[in-house]
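Hi V.,

You were right to ask for the full record rather than a summary. Here it is.
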Amino acid sequence: MSVGEIKKQIEGLTRNEQGELAHFLRELIDDGAPGDISPEWLEELGRRGAQIDRGEVELVPWETVRDEIRRIV
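Predicted structure:
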């Protein structure tokens, strides 16, 4: 399987699943060294990902946030 094929499959995952995969890859790359993400943060990320998947939160595009920050500053 090519990296491109893997990327396409990852795009089909939920945000929560992508987060789990990102955590796994980070741990793999760190060669088993303890990560600096606490279990509590991972739980929070999972909770937030689930809220996104259920449509319970309104997502704001980065460009909108960036423009608002620039307007304030």
